[in-house]
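REVIEWER CHECKLIST
Item 1: Sequence provided? yes
Item 2: Single chain? yes
Item 3: Sequence as submitted:
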Amino acid sequence: MELSRKKGVARRRVLIWGLVLACAAVAGKLAGISLAFLRPPQKKGTFGGLVNAGSLGEIPEAGSAPRLVPQGRFWLVHGENGLRAIYNSCTHLQCLFGWDEEKNVFICPCHGSEFSRAGKVQKGPATRDLDCFPLRLVDDQEEVVRQVEEQADLAVADLFMAGDGEPEQPAGKILILQVDTGRRISGARGNG
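Item 4: Structure as written out by the authors:
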């Protein structure tokens, strides 16, 4: 009698734990579905998704003034090491900033923070470099030619012909610069 009673208790424990685990799995699945509905959709061509910044021939020349891309909320900078997409939000209090052609720096009008063309803090109150977005160069078939996923420049100098500075399109393909505004790369702590 005692043995059959122990078997009944053990069987009940197994059933209870099975039921608990099944309920937890269902609850986890429902939580995941609920979070998916709360997250806004990432549309191509708008902030929060992939934004085309133009063809290789349309990008600013190396050393020229940065170009604001309003639909992506970033500045496209072509420095000596390549291209960088800098998020147009100051790291101090998220104010929008602008490019000062005379000083050759980004200046935040709210509190006066200044940043180099690479997004490095030069003057506070901001204490962190500007955030960037990952970049990739794709051909007309949307195949990635090259990309950068970190706080670094996308090298493109080798894609320009030495003589006239016009872009060299490999095998007649048009190269498009895409910026992933859905993935922000945090700037490093600066000296400011």
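Item 5: Key structural point noted by reviewer: The CA atoms of residues 38 and 159 lie 42 Å apart.
Item 6: Recommendation: ____
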